[in-house]
Specification:
Two copies of one chain form a homodimer. Chain A is α/β, with parallel strands linked by helices. The first copy, chain A, has helices spanning 36-44, 51-69, 74-89, 96-114, 119-148, 175-184, 201-213, 225-230, 256-265, 297-300, 342-350; strands at 9-12, 15-19, 30-33, 157-160, 190-194, 217-220, 236-239, 243-245, 250-253, 270-273, 279-280, 301-302, 305-306, 319-322, 329-332, 335-338. In chain A, strands 6-5-4-7-10-15-16 form a seven-stranded mixed beta sheet, with helices on both faces. A four-stranded mixed beta sheet of chain A has the order 11-8-9-14, covered by helices on one side. Chain A has a three-stranded antiparallel beta sheet with strand order 1-2-3. In chain A, strand 1 (9-12) and strand 2 (15-19) form a beta hairpin. In chain A, helix 4 (96-114) packs antiparallel against helix 5 and helix 5 (119-148) crosses helix 6 (175-184). Chain A starts with 8 loop residues before the first strand and ends with a helix. The model of chain A has no long low-confidence stretch (mean pLDDT 96). At the A-B interface, helix 7, strand 6, helix 8, helix 9 and strand 13 of A face helix 7, strand 6, helix 8, helix 9 and strand 13 of B.
Chain lengths: 354, 354
């Protein structure tokens, strides 16, 4: 499916295979998760991150739990699948694609169970569904990327935050999918990547994958973005999303909201690129999106080196919420939605577009 | 002069003594600079940083050059002092206090030379002048801090950027001087410190010195500031300055301008605290302030660990410029200037206030 020259995530003989994103850009290591618990921890510990990639990984995790438990009796098999769903749902609270993928896996399981399938057949159905989710995710990103090209002028200087790339999806990426599509069409975009503290997804992951594809990328610390906007060195901002509420409010990596405010102050367009599976009609607005608070270590240390005196506390919200009014356009696999809001988003999901 | 429980900078039998700020918060090491070149490199390599502290260090550097050269003949002594001035002036371009201190040392030298003083006496006069600059800097910070207390409500939640503290001055600090004065008056301020990439002055230095003084401090990554403002968790922002132009535009650590824009968007006051020696009437406005561009390493590595793929470029402007219109008030040792501008700044320097 993917033509990218590296492996992000997938299924292998021994379990779920994940490129260990914690080791990038220094080492390209693939981790094998042989149990449901290993998959859950890999999501929690950021071996894999990015809303669509978390969804794909959770689906593969359910398939793995089914494979491992398929020789148990029907009741124990059902209990193992219930427990897998519950454990994976508890890994990270913000990215809605996690719950979307788990719901899709649960629906497939219910369908197979309603047919009276045996455990072995249910496990096979769940693996097929997980692989379909992975496959579709890359296709959706490609459609999304090509839909977004209309927003990218020639030689655009594009600022992005975190990694909404091939490493955050099964392939191609969302925000970076738009960049890739513009690059493929010869529009010669250049990218400014916020390093994205504390986990440095921009420096470590976005720079790595764009360099691999030959797309020019320059890394800045997060606090340089305003200065470059002020000096006229940015043409547009494009980011991914972890959850989009029914009214269009966007939860994404911490720092996104600040960029949106800065974009408005400098009259620059602020675009969000995400598959429809990131839109959650059950969340009315941004205030209802749970924001994950992570621990002290990622902020207080870098590798082995402490950057803070012992005993000094930190804050560590992993995401923030950008009100819909700041979003110039939402790019999805069904097309571009200018000034997205409650009604246009609902219409998009009903399929009135694209 | 200082009651602070640590040593920042000063004069010793063997030369200029500097707390090595690169090693904080892990190790408290004092570096002895025995030559002019060692002082110049200490400024360039950020052993010492912060506009007033750079000024103090440069003055001590001139005194050291005079001490080391005082046994030379008059012509060689004069040449050594010229060279010291030139070398120190080339260390860092943005902080005006460097040039202010060098000019003051040059004036004292010219005065002594005009009296016909011998090299030994000129060297003694220069040491006295440097020690006076160091001493006055701490006193100025105390006056500035107490002048700024009127801006700090009880239990204020104060966001600051970089380190405009005792470590950026000879003692007490500028922005943190205001915090200290409010704390001493029982106003119970709490501080949110931006970690301040790439050199982490906020995490490493601001957190360290406030913890030493028992002032509550919480560290955040730079990209969290907007989120906390949005949630109503910040009451005011106060920062230092590296140079203030005649019209009130403020050059300060990269990231300051973004905070100013965010403060306005959230209707929060944005204060700048700096001694009058930071105001440069010879610089008409911010566009005329030279912005130092530093190298790739501070952005691309952390300690020994690379955080970027080899070959990916970075940008590294060390400062940015905040237009005067964003500054709610300027706090100096002569008092508080609300909505500072060309005329009020000129009047302040003419001594019509305070």
């Amino acid at each position: 499916m993917s033509t990218q020259p590296w492996f992000t995530l997938g299924w292998g003989e021994e379990g779920v295979l994940l490129l260990d994103q914690r080791a990038l850009p220094e080492r390209e290591e693939v981790l094998t998760c042989r149990s449901l618990e290993e998959v859950a921890r890999a999501i929690e510990e950021l071996v894999v991150r990015g809303a669509p990639a978390i969804g794909c990984t959770a689906a593969l995790g359910v398939a793995l739990a089914a494979r491992v438990s398929r020789a148990l009796g029907p009741a124990a098999f059902a209990a193992a699948l219930d427990q897998a769903h519950e454990r994976l749902a508890a890994t990270r609270p913000t990215a809605i694609n996690l719950f979307w993928a788990l719901d899709r896996m649960a629906a497939r399981r219910a369908e197979a169970a309603a047919r009276g399938d045996a455990s072995e057949a249910i496990a096979a159905a769940l693996l097929a569904e997980a692989l379909a989710i992975v496959e579709e995710d890359g296709e959706i990103c490609r459609r999304l990327g090509h839909a977004g090209v209309e927003l990218v002028p020639d030689a655009a200087r594009i600022l992005t935050h975190c990694n909404a790339g091939a490493l955050a999806t099964s392939a191609y990426g969302t925000a970076l999918g738009v960049v890739r599509a513009a690059f493929e069409k010869g529009r010669a975009p250049t990218v400014l990547a916020d390093e994205t503290r504390p986990f440095l997804q921009g420096a470590r992951l976005t720079a790595w994958e764009l360099q691999r594809d030959g797309i020019p990328v320059t890394v800045i610390t997060d606090n340089m973005a305003a200065h470059l906007m002020q000096r006229g060195e940015v043409d547009l901002i494009i980011v991914g999303a972890d959850r989009i509420a029914a009214n269009g409010d966007v939860a994404n990596k911490i720092g996104t909201y600040g960029l949106a405010v800065l974009a408005r102050a400098h009259a620059l367009p602020f675009y969000v690129a995400a598959p429809c599976s990131t839109i959650d009609l059950a969340t009315a607005n941004g205030a209802d999106i749970p924001i994950e608070e992570r621990g002290r270590d990622e902020v207080a240390h870098f590798g082995e080196r402490p950057v803070l005196p012992d005993g000094v506390p930190v804050r560590h919200p992993a995401f923030d919420v950008t009100p819909a009014e700041y979003v110039t356009a939402l790019v999805t696999e069904r097309g571009v939605l200018h000034q997205p809001g409650q009604e246009s988003i609902a219409a998009l999901l009903r399929g009135h577009r694209g």
